[in-house]
């Protein structure tokens, strides 16, 4: 659905995001969908982002450009970042995910040096060099009084420091949207921070949480995490607006294969995502159910360590690896599957992580098998929606029993699509309406002061 903005009495919001089309991956989707649907709730966003020719995007997806509503102003600025130097010195062609952290588990000396430099010279992250350029452009945009509110979205969390400075200078209502935890993100300890660097980073986090007029998070677990910080935070100003799915993206019919039991995983997966039990179960099922053709399909970036584990489990011959594809094509792969596999990184402080892909998995109406922490938000959502099962990383027997039952059901009817999933609350349109209420409430409050 293409949304066109009309000249009506709307709240004008300056939406500051590093990730914007042609960036691909999950980082861009939340902001893009917000900006797509905010006009329907009386909020007119204008986007401040980085020049696409200078940006450090791990992946590109040019299909997202077609979703930007006509009439939305997009302002791009220069940036100053270390990633080109990284690629030249390391010999790697790709920009690392998560700012050098979420890479292969086994790294050499040079990789450790890069991580140390990233963790101690670029605080809070390696994209902080964009801030001075963004602040200069924001000053130009804000000085005429056109905007009534500011929203900054992260990661990269350095973007929140832009909001912090603009709040101090202009006093406009400021919403900080944190898609992930800050110093509690699961790869944080891989960056070899010194005590001084940790203290600086922690202070940045606390300042943002205290001074933002509203904080948006993606899960109840993240809200609890932030409320337990040694900061003066009003619980009522932290709002949970999870990621979601866009009905407009699901244009393909469900066509599960009739001759094979196809389990698909989409997105990036590294050794931190412990799927060993799942691989063991599939290997056992192949021995027990010799009449069923099992197939695994990974769509996206798969680390060499994960590929080695698949090979060690004897599943290399039934596994397909599909490189990163545009988002619309990834949805098509979901709809052509029997079941969907999801995994949450098996690391400390991971409870607050609700993968963005979960909601599109839900919208596909395919049964989900997930490995992750029990009693987490992800576990609760899958259970409440009736969309499948989450298993602990070591729950071998439970997963084996479950997939054995699913295999028997498939033998009777190879279409395991679920008749109904209670996922309407995760529609991007509905979630954006909640954000619009937060924005308009803050603007109305500021007008009364």
Automatic annotation (TrEMBL):
Q: What is this protein called?
A: Glycosyltransferase involved in cell wall biosynthesis
Organism equals Pontibacter virosus
Which terms in the Gene Ontology molecular function aspect does this entry carry? glycosyltransferase activity
The cross-references to SUPFAM superfamilies, in alphabetical order and at most eight, read: UDP-Glycosyltransferase/glycogen phosphorylase
- Gene3D superfamilies linked to this entry: Glycogen Phosphorylase B (3.40.50.2000)
Which residue ranges does UniProt annotate as crossing the membrane?
none
Q: Which GO terms describe its biological process?
A: lipopolysaccharide biosynthetic process
Keyword annotations for this protein, in alphabetical order, are: Transferase
The taxonomic lineage of its organism, from the top, reads: Bacteria, Pseudomonadati, Bacteroidota, Cytophagia, Cytophagales
Question: Entry's InterPro entries?
Answer: Glyco_trans_4-like_N
Q: Where is the Glycosyltransferase subfamily 4-like N-terminal domain?
A: 117-248
